[in-house]
Amino acid sequence: MAKLNAAAVAKIREICARYTEEKTPLMMILSDIQNEYGYIPLEVQEIVSQETGISVAEIYGVVTFYSFFSLTPKGKYVIGCCLGTACYVKGAQQVIDKFCELLHVEPGGTTDDGLFTIDALRCIGACGIAPAVSINGKVYPKMTVSQVQEVIAQYLLLEEKGEGAGAS
Amino acid sequence: MAKINIKIEGISYQVEEGLTILEAAKTCGYEIPSLCTFNHGECNQGSCRVCLVEATGARGLVASCVYPVAEGMEIRISSPKAIDARRESVELLLSNHNKNCQQCDKNGQCELLYVANLTGARDDAFCGEHSEVHIDRLAPALTRDTSKCILCGRCIERCKNAHGLGILGYENRGFETFVSPAENRSFADSPCIQCGQCVNVCPTGALMENSEIGLIDEAFKAGKTVVVQAAPAVRAALGEEFGFPIGTPVTGKMIAALRRLGFYRVYDVNFGADLTIMEEGTELLGRLQNNGTLPMITSCSPGWVNYAEYNYEDLLPHLSTCKSPHEMQGAIIKSYWAKEHNIDPKDIFVVSVMPCVAKKFEKQRDQLQVDNLQDVDAVITTRELARMIRRSGIRFDKLPDEEWDGDIMGDYTGAGVIFGVTGGVMEAALRTVYHVLTGKEKEEITFTEVRGHEAGIREASIDINGTVVNVAIASGMKSAKVLLDEIREGTSKYQFIEIMGCPGGCINGGGQPYVRPQLLPNEDDDILDTYKEKRAKALYTEDERQTIRQSHNNPQIQELYEKFLGEPNSHVAHKYLHTSYAGREGFNELSQGE
Hints:
Largest sheet of chain B: 5 strands, mixed
Number of domains of chain A: 2
Structural class of chain B: alpha/beta
Number of helices of chain A: 7
Number of strands of chain B: 20
CATH superfamily of the largest domain in chain A: Glutaredoxin
Distance between the termini of chain B: 55 Å
Shape of chain B: globular
Largest interface: A-B, 14 and 20 residues
Number of helices of chain B: 20
CATH topology of the largest domain in chain B: Rossmann fold
Radius of gyration of chain B: 25 Å
CATH class of the largest domain in chain A: Alpha Beta
Strand content of chain A: 5-15%
Distance between the termini of chain A: 26 Å
CATH class of the largest domain in chain B: Alpha Beta
Helix content of chain B: 25-40%
Oligomer: heterodimer
Structural class of chain A: alpha+beta
Strand order of the largest sheet of chain A: 2-1-3-4
Number of domains of chain B: 3
Order of helices and strands of chain A: HHHHEHHEEEH
């Protein structure tokens, strides 16, 4: 299953080495890998397992437990729709449904062109501005269904101009 | 340990400090209904909530399996609140459980059904949606059915404790959680060694061996000549299935039962074990005298062989090329024995009764065929044999003691018997090696434990006519890894190493009867600590009773070499009795559609 190139393997080992002093380093290692590559496939988990001695099944369990971690590559723009209690009662479900409708993907899915991923998030701690949507770290407060089309259009425009931000 | 004062149901007791309520109550004569009392520290998550009790100083009810006793604590096990809570906990577990108990091979030994009965969880109190079901039937030895899983996590712990492997883990979250190898793979597509230790601790039917009783039925129906051979460790544990105390050898009754099940011949795998010693002892001498690859490592345990192929491909030349005893015997049955009996090998069906589930995997290896015929056709566990005996209406306890069939492969020695215990193969081999080098007999080899019981490694140095042989023994892959890493690093000081897959060897194999203290009211309280020793003692006693205790002195083995094999490690011997290994990728590329 060795599909990773040597540079990637070296990078993952380097990330693991950052936390050798930690008692429970797994979450930190996985966070760094998620931030570096945008996802954590099984091949990468195998290397983390070799480096840390934690079984692949346990790592896989952590990756599938937290919605922050992903097994598949995410789109260039990750649209995080908060579905926490406050956002939900303020209509977040309708907002995410609209994103899904316009982009033709299910929550958790990525558009065929690799541009957008829609994530359903639990509370992101922005209840005061519910319903909140976060796209690559930029927060859109008090989203309404009617704004969804416009938000998507902004990012498509950026892409057309070739100014799109690098995917996180 | 300091003693503290507690009260249970208003009655004062003194108990050791530091115990959990569950443990303390046990010392006072109470058995709080729970799932983990069966489990002896391999579950400490307190997640099932079956063992709830009332305790002063705690907020609400507490899980007695994890809550420690404290000075002055007053505990109520029988309060209405506690009784209702325990029943509801079990009802909640049952609400997401596949209750087709009559189709379940754990029926009769299911701990969930036991606590359901105990707590009075009769109604379908919380009927509703069930989690998605995942079933794995691809692996030759094991099946996994999450519809029976209660997410207790014992299998996860056992795999880690026994082997340091951790093949199984929790996947996903909340209602979607299930236990599986990473990526919800089959055991067949992960580096699982298929030892079956997880089956031994699974409280329900979620993890089971693949039953091969049906294959045997088919062979009988097809009119095949069905020959059975039983491994040493089976006789030390089969009696447990029929109410005999743990450690009762039931060799004679087992033979009688097998005969009544209709097998054409009933043989002891000990003959194959003696044959293994002849071949393996000779191989070891050859390697010692000709600068061969050392240390040589035994290859009887298919769980261990799987582990080596997945994790230590570079060390495979260290493995003895000898097949395991039942495979050797199967190959001889389908060649020499078939010829002597004038039976076409294609019409012979060889059944092995094993303490092991990995043998089910082993028997279908390409490397274990001769002339396109599998050496062994079906492998059943000790537990499956018990099922066959029960369904045939045989009263096991009423059976007479009978003897093995004596033709061609009926003789066996004490050396073969002790194969079932960790260290046994080593001792048996050294008895023969000692004889070859000195011309004298040595009865026993004494091993000293140098690294304590924890690591499970023992070693010895034996001086044979000036040749010092350093040997080591390990069982469970966690221990084996220590010895293997030494070889890899070039620091190993041994010439011969015995490795067994399951901790304690075959007596504690993945196919042996379940040890559930709750279901064994007549056993001692510490049975989980002592059952391995008791089963081992049954085998050592049988060894001591044998008049011949060295494999090379088995007359029928001598005859087999004279008439068929020539000499150990001969060309003919290699064709029938030796095998090869190949490295395997743990997480292989999945084929389309899986």
